[in-house]
Amino acid sequence: MDIVFHCPQCRQELEADSGASGEQISCPSCNATITIPTSDPSTARPVASPSGPPSPAPQSPPGERTFAVPITKEPVQPLIQRPLPPLEAAARDTARKMRIKTIRHSDCREVGHDHFDTTVTEALNKIGEENIINISTLNYSYIEMGTQKLVTDYGVMIVYRG
Predict the structure, then answer these.
(1) Fewest Cβ atoms nearer than 10 Å: which of 18, 62, 71, 124?
(2) 24-77: pLDDT as tens digits
(3) 27: in domain
(4) How far apart are CA 97 and CA 91, in angstroms?
(5) Residue 90 located in a structural domain
């Protein structure tokens, strides 16, 4: 059976297993030291907090649960943090300083034709020579879908201001 009781400091409603009665815990809301009461909360003696004696628990009709809002003198810390914006949104909102373009040789091949040099040249002309920071060659391996063989290929990575 669970014991439902209130923190004497911040009035936060807490619940504990009846086997834990008599143990001392820290209130998860205000960090005050609390002694978990026995299964009958009216016989339990709460631990006095450093700021003064505990105030009496509000009485509610049987079967109805009331919720107490913790009152503290310190600024309230949010329990649920707002998620960070997605990377795409963050990239749109900031000044673009550096970008990367990767061109793989396998993406530039057609039956009987190799357009890798043309594709790289077009990309470099579009970026502009003054914006190019670095060009690096890449070697990579992948499994070809048709033959299920491991194929080694190459490409370039272009780092530029954008």
Answers:
(1) 62
(2) 888 888 888 888 888 654 544 444 444 555 555 555 556 666 666 666 777 766
(3) yes
(4) 10
(5) no
